[in-house]
Design a protein that fits this description.
This protein is an all-alpha fold. It has one domain. The chain is built from 18 helices and no strands. Helix 2 runs antiparallel to helix 9, helix 2 runs parallel beside helix 12 and helix 3 packs antiparallel against helix 10. The radius of gyration is 21 Å and the shape is globular. The chain starts with a helix and ends in a 5-residue tail after the last helix. The mean pLDDT is 83.
Length: 448
């Protein structure tokens, strides 16, 4: 591990070294998330497309559990690096490994034994329920691998191995994309084939990371002898991992609630929003990717007390996200019809999808600022601001806006509820950081 990237490298170089591999892996992940919808859409069956859209929030729950150990572990590891506590890092990484296995088994049992209530809760109609059950059943059996692949990708990045983290994520994604057309279209397995390809891809990622750990060329460890929940390991991981997880959970819950609201208007509206949300993942995940990439840099410099470098990294990260957000938003507005048509050849779905995509993208130029703030709070170990922000964008702000907008404006109100919540959350994040920044200035050592 080269600590100069954390301490002395120019900020643009440090951000590029850590964030570019993450952004690239997110780009491939976006294609992976779009692949299921795209190839299922080639069947021409709007019900199968709707089923994938309906079950996506449930799949995100598994990623949320993985983020408890991934983002929570990454935050703690990067701060421990800054403090020079390298031996304790082995305990943290081992805890993330075995904690992830236990959590994955619990999630699998919950999905399998609670299948019918889950299908009813996510808004399945009689036309989509059978397809959704087929997809979700397969995902359930692979729960452990989804949790571990999500966790490992973040934990490995925490020690500066951003390229290796990217390789592991890309391996699973490429496997999934290659298998999707074979299983969905050639073997005519439909949505079940899409789910099976996803699980096989995650298994490949987990195997890749385990081989990396076992080779011993890392300060991380997955040896059971290092496993412990003591010495602040459990609380250190979970105090940051849980708010990050809640953010993913609320993304799932908000999608489920939105789909329930949309289901009153018809399955085609559900399918259209599902396609629009998939397309919107390009700007969201890439901007999250940059925030995730700079998180270890921020955590290290916060742990070492270099607050000046920390803020330089934040500002540069925000600038990059705003530039990207503006560019992709312009492209989406110009080519919205072509983008929606890529996923499904259904005139009604395309018509709704164009308006939905343009509405969601209104916050596109600025939403990256929110993600940099949130990952900064996580990297600094600021659990309460991270929790508040996680609860707001997809929960405390979004839910009231959704209900009121639907009541006042119907379908249009539902469509515009997310960008409204995004803008409110950005200003909340700014206010919380300004307060934290004042405290950092007050506690900073005085210079003569």
């Amino acid at each position: 591990m080269k600590e100069d990237i954390f301490k002395t490298a120019p900020v643009p170089k440090a951000v590029a070294t850590m964030a570019l591999p993450t952004v690239l892996s997110m780009l491939v992940t976006i294609f992976y998330n779009m692949a299921d919808t795209f190839f299922v859409g080639q069947t021409g069956d709007a019900n199968q497309v709707a089923a994938v859209s309906l079950t996506t929030p449930v799949f995100l729950l598994l990623m949320a559990v993985g983020n408890i150990f991934g983002i929570g572990g990454s935050s703690l590891i990067s701060r421990l690096l800054g403090q020079g506590q390298k031996e304790k890092i082995k305990t943290v990484s081992s805890f993330c490994m075995y904690g992830g296995i236990i959590a994955g088994v619990i999630m699998m049992a919950g999905f399998l034994f609670g299948m019918n209530p889950i299908l009813n809760a996510i808004g399945c109609s009689k036309n989509t329920k059978e397809f959704a059950e087929s997809y979700l059943s397969c995902i359930a059996y692979g729960s452990v691998f989804v949790v571990l692949s999500t966790a490992f990708g973040n934990v490995v990045r925490a020690e500066g191995a951003a390229k290796l983290s990217m390789a592991g994520m890309m391996l699973g994604t490429v496997v999934n994309i290659v298998l999707d057309p074979i299983m969905i279209l050639t073997l005519h397995m439909g949505v079940f084939g899409a789910a099976l390809a996803t699980i096989i891809g995650n298994i490949c990622s987990v195997i890749f990371y385990i081989v990396y750990f076992l080779r011993g060329k890392t300060i991380l460890s997955i040896s059971p002898k290092y496993f412990s929940v003591r010495q602040g390991v459990f609380t250190g991981v979970c105090s940051i991992g849980l708010p990050a997880s809640i953010n993913n959970v609320l993304m799932s819950v908000s999608n489920i609630i939105m789909n329930n609201f949309l289901s009153f208007y018809g399955d085609e509206q559900v399918a259209a929003m599902g396609v629009a949300m998939k397309a919107n993942m390009l700007v969201i995940l890439l901007q999250i990717g940059l925030g995730t990439g700079i998180q270890p840099l921020i955590g290290y410099n916060y742990g070492s007390g270099d607050h000046k470098r920390l803020k330089k990294i934040m500002k540069f990260g925000m600038l990059c996200n705003v530039i990207f957000g503006v560019c992709i938003t312009i492209i989406y507005f110009i080519f919205s019809k072509e983008i929606i048509h890529m996923f499904i050849d259904n005139g009604t779905v395309i018509g709704y999808g164009i308006d939905m995509l343009r509405a969601i993208m209104l916050a596109g130029p600025f939403i990256g600022i929110l993600f940099v703030f949130n990952f900064t709070f996580q990297a600094m170990g600021k659990a309460v601001p991270s929790l508040i922000l996680s609860l707001s964008r997809q929960g405390l702000v979004f839910f009231p806006v959704l209900v009121i907008s639907n009541h006042l404006f119907g379908l249009d109100g539902i469509v515009y509820s997310q960008p409204i919540a995004d803008f409110v959350s950005i200003f909340m994040a700014l206010g919380m950081f300004l307060r934290i920044n004042r405290k950092m200035k007050e506690t900073a050592p005085k210079t003569a």
